[in-house]
Amino acid sequence: MQNPYIPYPVVVDKIITEVDTKDIKTFRFKFVNPEDEQKYAYIPGQFGELSIFGKGESPIGIASSPTQKGYVEFTVQKAGVVTSALHEMEEGTIMGIRGPLGNSWPLDFLEGKNIVIVGGGFAFTTLRSLINYMIYGDNRKRFGNITVIYGARNPGLLLYKDELTEWGKRTDLNLNVTVDKGDATWKGREGFVPAVCKEVAPSKENAVAVICGPPVMIRFTLPVFFELGFSKENIITSLEMRMKCGIGKCGRCNVGSKYVCKDGPVFSLAELDKLTPEY
Amino acid sequence: MEKRLIKKDALAGIARKMAGDAMVWAPVKKEDNVLFAPLGTGDEPVFTYLNSKNAPKNVFFPHTETLMKFTRTPKGMEFSSEVNQSGQSVLFGVRPCDAHSFVLLDKLFDQEKYKDAYYIEKRKNTTVISLACVKPPYATCFCTSVDGEPVSADGADILLTDLGGDYLVEFITDKGEKLASYFGDAKADAAADAKKAEIAAKARDAIQSKIPAHEIKPILDVNFDNPFWDTIHRKCLACGTCTFMCPTCHCFDISDEVKGSDGVRIRSWDSCMFPLFTKETSGHNPRSSQKERWRQRTMHKFKYYIDMFNAISCVGCGRCVMACPVNIDIRKVVADISKL
Fold first, then answer.
1. What's the whole-number mean pLDDT along residues B148-155?
2. Do residue B303 and residue A257 have CB atoms under 8 angstroms apart?
3. Cβ contact, residue pair A278, B277, below 8 Å
4. Which CATH number goes with the domain that contains A111?
């Protein structure tokens, strides 16, 4: 059996600077041993521990979709020791990744429903994984209407700009990109995510909202969805906590009796209501 | 399984004989304390002790442990080897409360999905010989309140009970029976069983300290926000001694160390009592004061562990009670909670 503490060796295949401030980059990894890719079979919403020997590990959501073969991607903001070291890396460097860890977006539950994706800022990464999964080939038929509402503070901070353009051309996906404040070249929507949600007003009929963003966005977005009639069972989100082992043993990421690393990070609001508000 | 009798003064010799064949962790005197340590030639094991100063969990879950090694290459730091070597060993003469803690730790480290190879390997290769508590134990002992017994084979492969002149040797598991040849050939009779039962009952009665550990679970279920939590922690120094001494505390940190072009990834004991334990890179800390940390420790032992594994994560050894520099007493905490 695979020792869950030992990372798979990967090579940094491609680094994409996502934002104008250059502190958020997407790292594309290829497995050094091709057979490891099969072992790393993941579902959107799961995360991995990025492992830089000599620096440590950092838990990061998987940004690519399992439908993208041959590599796995993580979008990482430069913040602490490990992520800063990662941002200094060059293509071709060898490092490690552990996982896939945690539960995932509840694909079985989402199937056959209308999906409303709401993302804010840098928390869009695992939502991007979910979107790319849902719109891939025949997968698209398994889901109803897909509405995406994605906001960033300014146009330069939007992630995955090329993909946003591609998604915008699709007729089977209702994309709503907004920025808090535009610039001279911005022709799109301006306004905060909660206000855009109110405007787009997705129907609650057979619908699930998948919401991920900074706490302030979540706080003002939830009331909008309650008003639209979404039940707590049909609002799904993902938590973040400090983690080390990622497998429910080291004891720091529990919220009540649930470990965010192992039992989460994805919870419905109904499930969160049963947990202690300590996150 | 089989039971035998050995003369009391033969026990130290048996431990030393075993130490010739395998690594034997035995209680030895170190300065003023009795601690479990690998028995070396010339070391005298102490079997008349009350309990070891530190819990023997370090045998399976060392204070610091190397998980893997890595080395610098032109392409970056690369993984070089997994470290998990563990030979056959014997944990000789551990108290039943501490043996009980291994059963509790197994639930965490040996789960169905994520198995902790480092812990499991050591656990698998170690035979646990429990030494029943027949003498009046510490006033701070409360094992009988948390599913324990002073004379108990829980977690043991072999149980030794002092019957006066002899030790009754009970082989509890196949693993224990494999060591049978060390324990002579004097079979125990029904009289020995009767005597053991009498001693066990007396020892149980000698545990005076009782806490309502089972009663507080439903109270904890609904009292996360009770103002009571603002009272316990006020004198807490956040020293972490309680978690360090605790046989069931298992929280750890993982960190990397590099020397020259070689490095190791190690895990070390950590503590929910420390502010940095849950502090995130952003500065946000979900357990921002000692109040939340004390609530976590109490809830983890008497509620969360029951939710997760259907067991209280406390063995009633009383070490945290004795070691706390500001006399925070978990027995009082539990008693106070029962009155909420």
1. 96
2. yes
3. no
4. 3.40.50.80
Residue A215 and residue A127 share a domain? yes
Q: Domain range spanning residue A273?
A: 239-279
Give the residue numbers spanning the domain of B77. 3-206
Query: In chain A, which among 111-150 make CB contacts under 8 A with chain B?
Result: none
Closest-approach residue (CA) in chain A for B223: A276
pLDDT of residue A1: 61
Give the H or E element holding residue B90.
strand B89-94
Asked if A30 and A11 count as a contact pair (C-beta separation under 8 A), the reply is yes
Same domain, yes or no: B124 and B13:
yes
CA distance B285 to chain A (A): 8
pLDDT in tens, B23-49: 999 999 988 899 999 999 888 999 988
Going residue by residue through chain A, which has 279 residues, state the pLDDT in tens, using 9 for 90 and above. Answer: 689 999 999 999 999 999 989 999 999 999 999 999 999 999 999 999 999 989 999 999 999 999 999 999 999 999 999 999 999 999 999 999 999 999 999 999 999 999 999 999 989 999 999 999 999 999 999 999 999 999 999 999 999 999 999 999 999 999 999 999 999 999 999 999 999 999 999 999 999 999 999 888 999 999 999 999 999 999 999 999 999 999 999 999 999 999 999 999 999 999 999 888 878
**pTM attached to this predicted model:** 0.93
Q: Report how many domains make up chain A.
A: 3
In a domain, B144, yes or no: yes
* Mutation site for A-interface testing, chosen from B60, B69, B78, B274 by largest number of A Cβ within 10 Å: B78
Residue B211 lies in a domain: no
Other CB atoms within a 10 A radius of the CB of residue A87 amount to: 18
CA distances (Å), A88 to each of B35, B71, B288, in order? 47, 19, 32
A58's enclosing H/E stretch is: strand A56-61
Nearest partner of A120 among A157, A147, A93, judged by Cα: A157
Q: Flag whether A1 is in a domain.
A: no
The ipTM (two decimal places) reads 0.91
Residue B191 within a domain: yes
**What are residue A24's DSSP bridge partners?**
A77
Residue B63 vs residues A30, B116, B251: alpha-carbon distances, Å: 35, 16, 11
Task: Please indicate if any CB of chain B lies within 8 Å of the CB of A256.
Answer: yes
Give the model confidence (pLDDT) of B48-59 as tens digits: 888 999 999 999
- Using the 3D structure, point to which of B186, B206, B226 is the last residue of a domain: B206
Interchain contact, A54 vs B256, CB within 8 Å: yes
Which two tokens mark A169? 């051309």
The radius of gyration of chain B from alpha carbons, rounded to an integer in Å, stands at 22
Which of B77, B303, B307 is nearest residue A53 as measured by Cβ atoms?
Answer: B77
Partner residue facing A93 (CB), from B75, B296, B304: B75
What six digits make up the tokens of B263? 């490095």
Residues A14 and A49 grouped into a single domain: yes
CA distance B284 to chain A (A): 9
Average pLDDT for B320-339: 96
Of A6, A94, A245, the CB nearest to B254: A245
CB A154 within 8 A of CB A188: no
A113 shares a domain with A61: no
